[in-house]
Amino acid sequence: MTNWLHSTHRSDISFVFFQFSLSLSHFSFFQNVSLSACLTESAWGKQRIDTCAFSPLSFLNFSSSPLSFALLLLPQIILSANSKSHFVGQCSSQITSVFPLLMRFFLLILILVTRGIQSKGIYFVEERDGKTYTQPLTDQQSTKKVGEQIRELFNIDINPSEPPVKTNSHVSSYMKTLYKQLETYEHGETHEEDEVNAWLSADRIVSHMAQEVSHRFDDGSYRIRFAKEHVPSKEGQSILRAQLRVHIQGIVSPIFFYIEDTNQAGDTVLVSSEDPTVVSDVTTMVDRWSHLQLSTLPIITARASTENELKIEAFLVIALKDEEAGPPKRRSRRAAAASPISSSPMRQKTKRSESAYFEKPDANALCQRKGLYVDFDTLGWKQWVIAPEGFSAFYCAGACSAPFHKTMNATSHAIVQSTIHLVRPNTTSPAKCAPSHLTSMKILFVDQKKNVQIKRYRDMVVDECGCH
Amino acid sequence: MNDSVRTTTTISSTKSLVLRFQLSAILHLLLLSFTPIIMSVTAENHNQQMNRAESHSLRRGMLRKLGLEHVPVQTGPSIDVPQHMWDIYDDENDVDWVRHYYPKEIIEDNDGFILSYNLSLAARNAHNEEVHKAILKLRLRRNNKARRSGNFSIYFFEDDMNNDRFQIESRSVDNLTDWIDFDVTAAFSRRTDRISFFVELPEDVEIEETQSSSLSSLPYARARSAPLIVFSDLSEPSSVRRKRSAQTGNSERKNRKKGRKHHNNEAESNLCRRTDLYVDFDDLGWQDWIMAPKGYDAYQCQGSCPNPMPAHLNATNHAIIQSLLHSLKPDEVPPPCCVPTETSPLSILYMDVDKVIVIREYADMRVDSCGCR
């Protein structure tokens, strides 16, 4: 059975995509299944929807319970459609008001039609003639199994069966910005600045919201208290950078802001600010806490040169590096080519995916890089992993036989070994097609303790294949 | 009635059909019994041709790795590699590229000699080299045995066009029985295809005519007493090269230990690991351009990369995921491969065009360790 409904694609038909509100997904009879939906333009009256989009949907397996029918028909439905005029927002409200019954009817039909449609999970991607073709690799059951094993490999502290915890908006928005920034640096020029390099070479960047910020003391100071577990241990890792970010509400005029370690006098960071966000480097402070793990409480004293009571929110961002890990790998010339790590190939406009057109692997094909995409959404990570949505892992496949074309990146040893194989086939095998250069990837996620983290995984994405 | 007639005719026609079929079957069988022989003969031929073509293209591939378009064509008499080149070759010091030139021309002048060297090579990828040392070696002879010392000066010509010459070195030499080395690195500040030196010698001293065992090298008798040796580094950063001096010993030991572990556990013996592989250049038919070594321990990576991956196979994150996907869809996703993860270079000595002797270090020739990728 084909997994793609839109293989019936015709140019005069528009595609519309439905997404149920997330609240529905808490019911046990919902499963994560992706769904693509198609409706003709005429069904929407004057609404003109030009482009079809599709994305994962919390799909209802309603055969088990009639209750789900009722829930389904509740107006908890968000309809979104990508169109040339970007009317996503209005679209949902207008359509629900104009065609509430019609829409629910279609929805019902859709659900009937798409029962059994499987998730994308992990799929092959092939580019041919400027188009992208995809084919799912795994069915729903194995996707779940693979998801568990990949989670094990990623070793991230999340529990997909539980809803994610709410995080502070300052923290998550800052971490998102940092993540995006690092992504652009990663695929751009090398940076000489130490500051950027420190964040770039980190294996893990953790953020910790202060547990408590005191009221203003008489001397104009505030105590910002962190938890002991916020202090990173020195075991197997080193602290590259630590940054304290303070958000102040109620600044009327520029103030001076002092930050010092409550346990260690004389170590003051002075920040002059009229900006509501005060940023200061507290690497030495956190480093010291880490040394004296048990004997000190991680409390920072902040002093503001104003009589007014300020409302302060603070969090620490700490860049950590694993100790055993070697120096950061030399960035490849081709890194830019491998950049669509974070953008799902499914979301690009020109792209179509038809399993029927996907070419079977050619046994005679030469060693080359092939597309393989791992979608986090359908691994059940959507709510925990903020970015990326998935990643192009790629893989290497193909024959390593003479003549070695330039693109096959054969090593000298590979040529020697292949020649020996030709002369004395019993002594060795032909050269093998394997990644010759891999790049790392970062993921941004919320852990179970509400901390927003950026974690880097080495050698995750194939950048170049070659004969070894 | 009509029906019965029709039936008999059908039967008879069926009979004749069966007969015809039997005949043709016999014929076919006869034919078939020959075809395998014919086919096997052609297949063998075909295979041999394929093998020859493949081995030819592999040879070309290797030559290209060495920076050569084809095997350097040797003209003139064959000459041996002088001892001092063997010494450099045997020396453990890390040298990327050493070239040994004989002078193209030796012109006698009033008070010395002009030595001209043609520096062009068959190697193409020479643009990123950096000359870090150049030595002019001279073997001289004193006609007047009574005199004991004299002043020797080396000049180089900035330009072939004019005769401006710059002194590089001047010194007095007492003992003329052995090679005299002059450091002429200064002459290599810019890239050039041709370089000429002027050697100022005391009146009674001249270039020795080196005795050779083979008569055919007679035209080189004097040239062989004035070689120029150029040591260069390739500016391309090669992490592999640096590894050699510091790590080869370690990884060798590590690997030996690993190997022992595998032998102890039979179930693990088929896992990805480094195994022996000796390369005999004669065997590969490469002896015509590689003068040394005759062969070397290249090692190889063999074994499986199973799922789940044992920790000691030092698999990458990507390999772990790929092995997972392979276990789900064995036909569609290939398993990770057991390939070299650390390699070291090998120095090769070969004769380039114009009797230029080259020692060059080539990366990725020897496997130090294997892993699943």
From TrEMBL, chain A:
Annotated GO molecular function terms are: cytokine activity; growth factor activity
* Keyword check for Transmembrane: yes
Which terms are listed as keywords in the entry? Answer: Disulfide bond, Growth factor, Membrane, Secreted, Transmembrane, Transmembrane helix
Region entry Disordered, spans: 327-355
Domain named TGF-beta family profile: which ranges?
Answer: 349-468
Q: Where in the cell is it found?
A: Secreted
Q: Where is the composition biased (Low complexity)?
A: 335-347
Task: Name a Pfam family for this protein.
Answer: TGF_beta
Q: Which residues cross the membrane?
A: 60-79, 91-113
Which GO terms of the cellular component aspect does the record hold?
Answer: extracellular space
Which family, according to UniProt?
A: Belongs to the TGF-beta family.
What is the recorded name of this protein? Answer: CRE-TIG-2 protein
TrEMBL record, chain B:
Q: Does the keyword Metal-binding apply?
A: no
Composition skew (Basic residues), residue ranges: 254-263
**In which domain of life is the source organism classified?**
Eukaryota
Kindly list the residue ranges recorded as spanning the membrane: 21-43
Q: Which GO terms describe its molecular function?
A: cytokine activity; growth factor activity
- Broad class of the protein's primary localization: secreted
Which CDD domains does UniProt cross-reference here? TGF_beta_BMP5_like
Location in the cell reads: Secreted
Q: Which SUPFAM superfamilies match?
A: Cystine-knot cytokines
GO annotation (BP), single: regulation of cell morphogenesis
The record ties this protein, via PANTHER family, to: PROTEIN 60A-RELATED, TGF-BETA FAMILY
Q: State the family it belongs to.
A: Belongs to the TGF-beta family.
Q: What is this protein called?
A: CRE-DBL-1 protein
Which species is listed as the source? Caenorhabditis remanei (Caenorhabditis vulgaris)
- What phylogenetic lineage does the species belong to? Eukaryota, Metazoa, Ecdysozoa, Nematoda, Chromadorea
Its gene name is Cre-dbl-1
